[in-house]
From TrEMBL:
The chain crosses the membrane at residues 12-37, 43-67, 173-199, 219-245, 361-382, 388-406. It comes from Saccharopolyspora gregorii. Pfam families: bPH_2. Residues 67-143, 406-474 form the YdbS-like PH domain. The keyword Cell division does not apply. InterPro entries: UCP026631, YdbS-like_PH. Keywords: Membrane, Transmembrane, Transmembrane helix. Signal peptide: none annotated. This is PH domain-containing protein. The keyword Cell inner membrane does not apply.
């Protein structure tokens, strides 16, 4: 529906979305109340109040729709909304860097999509159109991302590399790697714990807790402990697989002729996320410990306007490839960078002092566990033999993690990129464009100073804003920074005798 001067209203079906979502829980809630023993009159009263609230919501949503409008002009995208308190927001078209589409199950049933238009700037740099017909959303996305420079043939000046088209497509077997993704497993456990908390009184009323307690007392101790642990692990893995199916089903990564990387994914809630290549400053290969053990990894973008903070953009907005085989993750990273291969090998080793530091950290973390075992044995809470076994076990585990952290430590210069790798619980390999480095920081603790080490931090406007290469020999760290971005440190350096550029 068009208005004066090109103003248009959002799709009228958007009024149905919050109303239907508000009414959906009414039936299961009423059923639970009846099963719990609530009188029918009480259930009817609750349903009446619920329906009245839904009707009020329909009125307020309808008013918001009626008084809201948007306009796609030659120079700006504008949005007006509000009944009592009016707002008018606009974004310059020449600053638009992403147009993302999202459609949850209700929007999909109604044929709608939510359009999020972003400039890549932090803060108030996004405009949201909720919601438009799916065809209109796709048309607006194509129009806003089309660049005059592309039409003029500037795309021919792009760096040599893969042509436009599909870079990656999810294979269903890759979803098995999500079973080794601890973040998804923790999300499943958290949801189950929340559900138990919500229905705790109902479970207690039907004697579920009492029945479980009787079954536990009737079996041997090893089975009473082992069976729940196995069940929790299996439920977490199965839940993470189901969650990954919802998140990543139908995943495709495409490079478009407009100079945009587009990710499409989702089973129930479909998402289309755009990332302009001119904002790309590098890629990150993330390998959580469990995923690394099964040979998997995921590929993330390092780009301006993508926040790593929880309060920033969608957590998966930077994901270019979900958990997949490590070789595939490296291939996609190289395709995105327009390189022959991803520089994941041939790193410069760090000094042995870095190994000692990591083993020391590991032992300090293990110390409370060993102390707790000793105290428990002294107080008679546990037998002496298990306590005696805990102390060397946690010490060996700490040393193993320290050695692994040191083996994962490395850096190198690879063409136009500064590459750094670090971490053990989560190993990250970052390839950062050298022309995206805007400054350097050199951090040195008291203990690092005694060992002649320092952390080299490349500051950038993309991602978290910093790429840290820890525990480098002090002199070599300065040489690395100067070699990565020649001339940036020159005004601050003093002539010194030649330093061996090979790490010891």
């Amino acid at each position: 529906m068009s208005g004066p001067a090109g103003w248009r209203r959002l799709d009228g079906r958007v009024v149905l979305v919050p109303v239907v979502l508000a009414l959906l829980p009414l039936v299961p809630t009423a059923a639970v109340m009846l099963v719990a023993g609530t009188k029918p009159a009480g259930v009817a009263a609750m349903a009446g109040i619920w329906a009245a609230c839904a009707a009020l919501l329909a009125v307020t949503t309808g008013l918001d729709w009626w008084f809201g409008s948007y306009r796609i002009g030659e120079e700006r995208v504008e949005l007006r909304k509000g009944v009592l308190s009016r707002s008018h927001r606009s974004l310059p078209r020449d600053r638009i860097r992403s147009v993302d589409l999202t459609a949850d199950p209700m929007h999909r049933v109604l044929g709608l999509s939510v359009v999020k238009i972003g400039t890549g700037a932090q803060g108030d740099g996004e405009l949201k159109l909720d919601a438009l017909a799916r065809s209109d959303a796709e048309r607006i996305r194509a129009a806003l991302l089309l660049r005059e420079s592309t039409a003029d043939g500037a795309a021919d000046d792009a760096p040599d590399g893969p042509r436009d088209g599909e870079l990656a497509r999810l294979r269903p077997v890759w979803l098995l790697y999500s079973g080794a993704t601890m973040s998804l497993i923790l999300a499943v456990w958290g949801a189950i714990a929340s559900a138990f908390g919500s229905f705790s009184e109902l479970l207690a009323k039907f004697g579920v807790y009492r029945l479980v307690g009787e079954e536990i007392r009737a079996v041997p101790l090893w089975l009473a402990i082992g069976a729940p642990v196995v069940a929790v692990v299996l439920v977490g893995v199965l839940g993470s697989l189901l969650l990954s199916v919802e998140l990543w089903w139908g995943f495709t990564l495409t490079r478009e002729s407009t100079g945009t990387l587009r990710v499409r994914r989702g089973l129930l809630t479909q998402r289309s996320i755009s990332l302009e290549e001119s904002r790309l400053r590098g890629v990150e290969l993330a390998e959580p410990l469990l995923l690394r053990w099964v040979g998997g990894a995921r590929t993330n973008a390092i780009a301006t306007g993508l926040s790593d903070a929880e309060g920033g953009k969608q957590p998966d907005a930077k994901t270019l490839l979900p958990p997949a085989p490590r070789a595939e993750a490296r291939r996609v990273a190289a395709e995105v960078l327009r390189e022959e291969n991803f520089p994941a090998d041939g790193f410069t080793a760090h000094p042995r002092a870095a190994l000692r530091r990591r083993i020391t950290w590991g032992l300090l973390v293990a110390l409370p566990f060993a102390a707790a075992a000793v105290v428990a044995a002294v107080l008679g809470w546990i037998p002496l033999a298990p306590a005696a076994a805990v102390v060397p076990s946690v010490a060996l585990l700490a040393i193993a993690f320290g050695v692994d952290a040191y083996r994962n430590l490395g850096h190198r210069l690879h063409g136009a990129y500064l590459v750094g790798r670090r971490g053990t619980g989560l190993r990250r390999t970052v390839a950062l464009r050298r022309d995206g480095i805007i400054g350097w920081r050199f951090e040195q603790s008291v203990f690092q100073r005694r060992s002649g080490l320092l952390d080299v931090v490349a500051t950038t406007a993309a991602g978290s804003g910093r790429c840290t290469i820890p525990d480098v020999r002090a002199g070599n760290g300065l040489l690395l920074a100067e070699a990565a971005v020649p001339g940036l440190l020159t005004p601050f350096l003093e002539p010194a005798p030649p330093i061996n550029t090979r790490e010891e």
